[in-house]
Design goal:
The protein is α+β, with helices and mostly antiparallel strands. It is 37% helix and 29% strand. It contains 17 helices and 17 strands. Strands 1, 2, 3, 4, 5, 6, 7, 8 and 9 form a nine-stranded mixed beta sheet that branches. α5 runs antiparallel to α6 (114-132). The two termini are 32 Å apart.
């Protein structure tokens, strides 16, 4: 159980909190956590997976059986990859979309030999390509392209609303990783010039026209790096790990149902790319940590108000990105409007901080579940709509708007917002062009947007009398025996509403 909880946080969180809090009786306070800023040298490895979305979508066509199959295949694939990363002492900081963000370094030791860190990360990258660089399932090939960079990492702990936290790694090293990742083709490992300077005497590689180094091989016996014995960690550390996990996932873990999390859900996905933040090298104060904290706390308050889910707040090769999702807790006909509502309020918050943003919003079916292995995992949504949301975010600037949404979102949101057609555009991964829209203003005559998931059921349930009668008979059986009732149905058909009715009836 302790291992299950700690698998949702990177090792750096364990390093930071376990030693000083072994004998603590209470959780660390917001005022203490918000002051934590660590700066230490690392090697950063990005493992980008091609074909992951196609794999999930192929299995999605198989319905429930497909969910079980995609869970099995992704678990096998990530387990093999993470075992290699663990062997080399790497730490999976984030599952960034279809990529793994891996750190080689330890914030407890600021005097580490950077040469060893860089050589180990490069050796690990080549080992991953050799052993799991190609994987095939359901007619889809998964391939990898890997990049390595080096520099200082700034480690921040942001948020704190309802004692919920986000581990936020930042620094200019993420700017450095962009070109090698863009240059690396499937099956390749590429590195920045800074990395090459450390390993050029022990590596075989070549410099490309874009200034990136393709790495063919490296002669290096990596040092043995101590691993964490999770069984010896304190219960306090487990409780702290809980504060980095979303409540909807915690509920499943607490009742031993983490293996039942995988499902196809209708969701709305919001990608927000933030501009104007500073991630300068040097003293940790040069990172806009207070700005970042205000941004995440604002997002936490908005999501708490309208039942959104903060999937991630991170810096990667694309910049600083905040990802929100609606429909994770329960599906609602207003999920699209909630996504637009959150986007408008986040845009207003950022403008008050003298920051700008671009936003992409999409709606539809996605695979929602755990990605990773028993050793390290995260809750994520995978599918075409997730990728499309990120791509619409990236198209905003060229179309002269700060928000783009797809047609399904626009059709659902137009009752509350004034929606304007923008263009018919081509996007990566789509054979046909798609219509995109933007929002101009809120329909002030509509009802205020509130959570529909809280409090008692207000509206009568219609057309479900037979289902209610059957379920009530089974509920009565609970008085004399212990049974389980499994309610199944396609996404959005009304399972949650039917459950609420049973609770109301008592």
């Amino acid at each position: 159980f302790r291992m299950e909880m700690l698998s949702f946080v990177p090792n750096q969180v364990v390093y930071r909190f376990d030693a000083p809090l072994d004998t603590a009786d209470t959780l660390i306070s917001y005022e203490d956590i918000r002051k934590l800023v660590s700066q230490f040298p690392i090697a950063l490895m990005f493992v980008d997976i091609s074909g992951f979305t196609a794999l999930n979508e192929n299995f999605a066509k198989l319905g429930k059986d497909g969910i079980e199959e995609v869970t099995r295949h992704t678990s096998q694939y990530f387990t093999a990859m993470i075992e290699i990363i663990d062997h080399f002492g790497g730490d999976v900081l984030k599952f960034a979309g279809d990529a793994l963000m891996v750190c080689f370094g330890d914030e407890r030791d600021h005097d580490q030999d950077v040469h060893d860190l860089v050589a180990t990360a490069t050796k690990c990258s080549l080992e991953i390509q050799e052993r799991v660089g190609l994987y095939e399932a359901q007619g889809v090939q998964l391939t990898l392209h890997i990049a390595v960079a080096t520099g200082d990492l700034f480690a921040l702990h942001l948020g704190g609303i309802d004692n919920k936290w986000e581990y936020f790694p930042a620094g200019q090293i993420f700017n450095q990783i962009h070109d090698p990742l863009d240059s690396a083709a499937s099956g390749e490992v590429c590195a920045s010039e800074e990395v090459w300077e450390y390993i050029k005497d022990i590596s075989v590689g070549e410099k490309r026209a874009d200034g990136v180094y393709y790495i063919e091989s490296i002669e290096y016996d990596h040092a043995t790096i101590p691993t964490i014995n999770f069984e010896t960690l304190s219960d306090t550390m487990r409780n702290i790990a809980r504060t980095y996990i979303g409540d909807s996932i915690l509920k499943k873990i607490d009742v031993g149902q983490s293996n039942w999390i995988a499902e196809l859900r209708k969701i709305t996905v919001v990608f927000i790319n933030l501009h104007g933040l500073s991630f300068q090298q040097g003293n940790g104060n040069e990172v806009d940590r207070f700005q970042l904290d205000k941004i995440l706390r604002g997002a936490q308050k908005i999501c708490k108000r309208i039942d959104g889910y903060i999937r991630q707040f991170l810096v990667d090769d694309k910049g600083c990105v905040l990802i929100l999702m609606f429909g994770i807790k329960k599906n609602s006909s207003s999920d699209c409007a909630r996504g637009v509502y959150a986007s408008q309020h986040m845009k207003s918050l950022l403008e008050n901080l003298n920051l700008s943003c671009e936003i992409g919003i999409t709606s539809g079916l996605a695979f929602c579940g755990l990605v990773g292995s028993s050793r390290r995992k995260e809750y994520a949504a995978v599918g075409d709509i997730v990728n499309l949301s990120a791509r619409l975010m990236g198209k905003c600037k060229s179309l002269g708007v700060d928000l783009l949404m797809d047609k399904p979102t626009a059709e659902k949101a137009e009752k509350r917002y004034k929606i304007r057609y923008v263009d018919n555009i081509a996007v990566k991964g789509k054979s046909d062009t798609i219509e995109v829209f933007t929002v101009e203003c809120m329909n002030l005559n509509s009802r205020p947007l509130r959570s529909s998931y809280k409090g008692t059921v207000k509206h009568p349930l219609i057309g479900r009398d037979s289902e209610v009668n059957i379920l009530m008979q089974h509920m009565e059986s609970l008085q004399v025996s212990s049974i389980s009732i499994l309610l199944t149905g396609s996404p959005g058909i009304g399972k949650s509403r039917l459950s609420e009715e049973l609770v109301e009836i008592g």
